[in-house]
Design goal:
Elements (H helix, E strand, L loop, with lengths): L10 H14 L3 H8 L3 H13 L3 H8 L6 H32 L4
Helix pairs in contact: 1-3, 2-3
């Protein structure tokens, strides 16, 4: 029984194959079949591409300005209000269930 021949692909080819999957909306399997690749190989390339941070994301992480005290206090206040609203919504859902005759 003859083993499979190991093929190597350029980074540009891999990027184009991944772009085809991402932009076309087609499945990895159908694109791999069209390109005569194993779907596991193409899936690995796509996964590697998705896990790689983009240059724009790297810049935004490294150049993020520090929050002022006013912004931090506003965020804390909004989080408290968000928690209160979630609790009120839960109470309202339960009361609707009680009045409708179905307990949730």
């Amino acid at each position: 029984m003859e083993g499979r021949q190991h093929r190597s692909f350029s980074d540009d080819y891999k990027r184009q194959a991944v772009d085809l999957v991402m932009s076309s909306g087609r499945s990895v399997t159908s694109v791999a079949k069209e390109l005569n690749l194993c779907d596991s190989v193409l899936r690995r390339w796509v996964d590697q591409h998705r896990s790689k941070p983009t240059a724009a994301a790297q810049r935004s992480i490294t150049q993020a300005p520090l929050m002022s005290a006013d912004q931090a206090s506003e965020i804390a206040e909004l989080r408290r209000e968000n928690e209160r609203l979630r609790m009120e919504r839960g109470i309202l859902k339960k009361s609707i269930g009680i009045f409708a005759g179905t307990r949730t």
